[in-house]
Design goal:
487 residues, alpha/beta, 7-stranded mixed β-sheet, 5-stranded antiparallel β-sheet, 23% strand, globular
Length: 487
């Protein structure tokens, strides 16, 4: 018979989301096991956030220096590829998860190596073979699914047999190929096209839609496309790939609008899908690849009883690490409150409703989610775009100003902002609050948290007017936006 162990909580997935949920639950004295079949630390640490930003940073630093008189004259070369890859290796800790494993131990969490799948109510099987070597983890109270997402590879003729790259292969590359064709026009596609171009690769982007970064304001995608073009990237919009073939010389891609494209490698960046296959969902009445939709506490909606929770990409609603970690903290606190000794401030009691802004409710999902795209120029956004607000039925007014109106942006690097950098606020005129903000330009990411506070906190424009930005900083764009609105 398989070995059995009992814990109060079992978390499947040891990425940032699973780590946060487990840690918060354990703080109340609950015993917690974390199951992971790959590297502890997850996709973000080894194949996404950290390595991709490490590859992007050298080119961004050079571009910033080149835009400043007195610094540009000192630059005599481009990105040192060997040093850039070595820096990437440092940030991924050489794909060694020992530090993350130690963090789990220090937090009082038990790590169980192996593939975890649900095997009935509050029961997780580790191993997957169904044999005597499997381990059964019985949860007294809750199971949390935090298995994330995996790259979506479309069913194009010849694509899978051509051995395409996904985000994993491109972020762990050891040698930079002469050329790469990128299928897709979203965040991963745009960021990796930027990084590859910085590393000396000829990049061709094949984008099915009419613009890059379709989830952002149109001017953001246009600015990034312009910048990529200036870097030598060939961007083909409204172009679909119809077939792919691997040859001795590389990859051939047939398209409906750009003819035949030749490249040494092909990167597929066409989105991600929740990783729910092989999770044993059929053992509890769900479909095998079903997305785990949750309520504001992280409880899976279609499951009876208060025992199955999910957070992160596996819910189908979260696509950034920071947002997934936020929801995971809520899930961990909810489990701690319901089953442990902890009672977070504002939690209420069993006889009282949970307060609207309690730590036991995920309230910033959807219209409050911030995102940064580390292209050149940077794109930072939170809340609704103008188009999204209209689809949501909101009455809105929109104000837009160019970054060239801000002295701090010029000092930071006029070359990065001229002609393309801009900022936009989407405003609900009835409540006089900001419901969306987008910044495109140098250091746009540093502007984002102030906008997130304004959106999530529903700070009125009359109060924002008295939040004076320092001169000469890029934050002065807030003053220009409010002046443009009429304050």
């Amino acid at each position: 018979m398989p070995e059995h162990r009992t814990y109060d909580v079992v978390v499947i997935g040891a990425g940032p989301v699973g780590e946060n949920a487990a840690d918060r639950a354990a703080r109340s004295g609950l015993s917690v096991a974390v199951v992971e079949h790959e590297l502890v630390g997850g996709e973000c640490s080894y194949w996404a956030c950290m390595p991709s930003k490490a590859l992007l940073r050298p080119g961004a630093a050079l571009a910033a220096a080149r835009s400043v008189p007195g610094a540009t004259e000192a630059i005599t070369g481009g990105v040192d590829v060997r040093a850039a890859l070595a820096g990437r290796d440092e940030f991924t800790q050489h794909w060694d998860d020992a530090a993350h494993v130690q963090w789990l131990a220090d937090a009082g969490l038990d790590l169980v190596r192996g593939h975890g799948s649900i095997d009935g109510v509050r029961r997780v099987r580790v191993g997957g073979s169904g044999g005597a070597d499997d381990l059964i983890l019985q949860a007294n109270h809750a199971v949390v699914v935090a298995t994330g997402s995996g790259p979506f590879v479309p069913d194009l003729p010849g694509l899978r047999s051509a051995g395409p790259w996904t985000n994993r292969e491109v972020t762990e590359l050891r040698e930079v190929p002469d050329s790469v064709a990128v299928i897709g026009g979203g965040v991963v596609a745009a960021e990796m096209a930027t990084a590859l171009a910085d590393l000396g690769c000829q990049v061709t982007m094949l984008v099915r839609g009419g613009r890059l970064l379709s989830g952002t304001e149109p001017f953001a995608g246009a600015a990034v496309a312009e910048s990529l073009g200036a870097m030598g990237v060939r961007v083909h919009l409204d172009t679909s790939v119809t077939g792919v073939q691997r040859t001795d010389d590389g990859v051939l891609l047939d398209t409906d609008a750009a003819g035949r494209v030749r490249a040494a490698e092909v990167l597929v960046a066409t989105g991600r899908r929740p990783r729910t296959g092989g999770l044993g969902l059929d053992s509890i009445g769900l479909a095998e690849h079903e997305t785990l939709a949750t309520d504001e506490t992280g409880r899976v909606r279609r499951i009876e009883g208060d025992w199955l929770y999910a957070a992160g990409d596996v819910t189908g609603a979260t696509h950034t690490t920071h947002q997934g970690k936020y929801v995971a903290r809520v899930v961990g606190d909810v489990i701690a409150h319901r089953f442990g000794a902890a009672e977070p401030s504002g939690a209420g009691s069993d006889a009282e409703p949970v307060a609207p802004w309690s730590p036991l409710r995920a309230r910033s999902a959807g219209a409050g989610e911030p995102q940064v795209i580390f292209t050149r120029p940077e794109v930072a956004a939170v809340g609704y775009t103008e188009e999204q607000a209209q689809r949501a039925g909101l009455t809105t007014e929109v104000v837009t100003v160019g970054m060239d109106q801000v002295a701090g942006a010029s000092l930071a690097g006029a070359g990065q902002a001229a002609g393309s950098g801009a900022a936009r606020l989407v405003i609900d005129p009835e409540r006089r609050v900001v419901v969306g903000a987008t910044f495109v330009g140098p250091a746009a990411s540093d502007l984002l948290h102030a906008a997130t506070i304004a959106v999530v906190g529903q700070v009125g424009l009359d109060r924002l007017w008295h939040a004076v930005p320092a001169f000469p900083t890029i934050s002065e764009v807030w003053l220009r936006l409010l002046e443009e609105y009429g304050l």
